[in-house]
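Intended use. Records such as the NMDA receptor-regulated protein 1-domain-containing protein entry shown here are meant for training and evaluating sequence-to-structure methods. They are not intended to support clinical decisions.
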Amino acid sequence: MSSNRELAPKESAIFRNVLKNYELRQYKKGLKLAESILKKYPNHGETLAMKGIFLNNLDKKTEGYEYVKLGVRNDLTSHICWHVYGLMHRADKNYAEAAKCYTQALKYNKNDVNILRDFALMQTQLRQYDSAAEARAQLLQHRPTNPPFWIGLAVSYQMAGKPDKALTVLKSQEEAMKDTPVNYEQSELRLYHNCLIEETGDFEGALEHLNTIEPKVTDKRSVKEKRAHYLSKLGKVEDAESTYRLLISENPYDSRYISKLLQLKGLDKDDKKSEANQLLADLLAQYPRSKAIEDLSLHYAEDDSFKVKAVAAIQNALRKGVPSLFATMKKYYSNEKKQKTITELVESYVTSLEKNGSFEENGSKEPPTALLWCLYYLAQHYDYHRQLDKALSTINKAIDHSPTVVELYMTKGRILKHSGKPQDAANVMNDARELDLQDRFINSKCAKYMLRADRVEDAEKTIGLFTRREVEPIKDMVDMQCQWFMTEEGYSYARQKNYGKALKRFQAVVKFYDDYFEDQFDFHAYCLGKATLRAYVDMLRSEDRMRGHPYYAKAAKGAVEVYLAMADKPKETSSLDEANMTEAEKKKARNKARKAEIKANKENQDPAAATTATDAAAVEDAEDKKEQKDEQHKKDGKKNVDQDPEGDAYLKTTNPLEEAFKLVEPLTRLAPGNADTHLLAFDIYVRQEKWLLAIKSLNTLAQLNKNQPELKSKIDYCKNAVAKPITPVDPRIQTLIDSQLAKLVV
């Protein structure tokens, strides 16, 4: 034992109360007791560490870390000091460092249940499942009657790719609960057990187990879905079909059941479309209100059969005024015949409705709105095919017919956007917004179009109509983790070459994904206690795929493009004489220079854009007032003031290419099918002169799509760059590079 650990009996009793105060979250009381011990034993490491964690929880983080580090130095062999140090790192979400501290703590006390439990949670967060399984196995030895410890060990084995070991653990646990009454937790545990059997590939065993546990399972729908799945895997077609038909009867609006029934009967093949149509017709007769069956009927129907079904579907939707009709029907545009049939039908309806008010020449009269929705459909159809003049004239005709329908203006705005007129598109979208000031969706859509027209201030005011009044709109967008707004604003700032603010917005989106990953930590213990294991495992796996999401990819692309622009632009020597300036003066001078650049950019815009731009002087005054307001906030000691509103911190990076690659690296693992991933990786590698990796990116891109528009130019660029490298290349590597490049022929 360290000499700094010994305490007199009285102080030992006080220290036990200190630990109890921490468990009860009585931080101020615990701090006073810790200070009373330190008056007599100022070098007592464990008390110093406890004082540090109390201070940390009382919003004195810096001082708290100092005391914890001092405590560790004074008693390097104390498991309490190392455990406290780990808790501090965990609170700061520094999980790797926390795990190291827990490892040190376990060196000096292998049997502490609290440390083992915290260590197991940390290893799960870090996805080190083998280590987590070892820690949970030790926990189980100490507390064999604790159900969450059994369950935790099973999950660790499963996530480590050892479902057979997980099954062994669960079987032991189930023996202890076989006589318990049926409840939700036990039901979920049994279904989780069944999923583990499925993961081993033993579908026969999984089916037998499912039949055994069915009376004790509360989620009857999952039982039926699993039974149908296992029966189909085992080739028991008739039994599987009856189960799928039972599921369809309970929920005929779920397209999964219908699609799986078609797959089961082998009717999803091209040469079986007539049989598929017959089956779907029978189902539609049974469940005539099922949109899922109707959509699949249109998918499998052909020629005259398709036309008959399309007529019924389209006319019904036009009578009812269904705005989403085009979104439904364009799924069939991949088939040229179907697309032609749909186009001819809708165009004939417009002609007939204008002439005699019916869909057919001698048909019954239709409601006046039928013509409106026909024109609306055609405008979207022409826009889809980029027949923009026809689309614009058609939507204008629809607006003349009914000038108060919001959807018409939204579509007109989209057409103008595709025509390369972002300012006009934003103005039209604002007209749509003003038709229904209580509609949050159109408000958000208008803000997006304003951002695409680089009217950032107008966009923030517009989105602010639906945000909290007590905070700035942009702050509320961050708090709500509104990815689309931050991404669009980032691209707007990037177009204006305001790289600091652009990176600030893109990195805010990246931080959202950090938060998503960190937010799962509390669920590691919660889900084991509640036994929601199937959902928990799904969550862990989905978190591992999270950065493959299109929103992340879009934000990462924008940020990488900015970093590449920064890497390509040499650091300019500032014309400002900053040597004799204070920090405040430097900031003011840099802001003034930036405003001048923005003003110059606005003056270079086309006249139409210039007329809609806010007066530069007014912008400058507003920004000056904002700076004064921020300074006042700092003086008043108020919290939540953005200390870097211009994003200057991001511009100070010394290696923008490394920062860019941090964003692309997750995409190379999680979104390898996205062409932008490999284009961005290539752009980074060539600037780093990592030629083989650059060529590998091009090779992957060629495998995805040899007709990629940028592929040939990238290959040519790479060949020219390799021929004249800035840094000399080893001849052997040069030969390898040349051979790899020679294979890339497009």
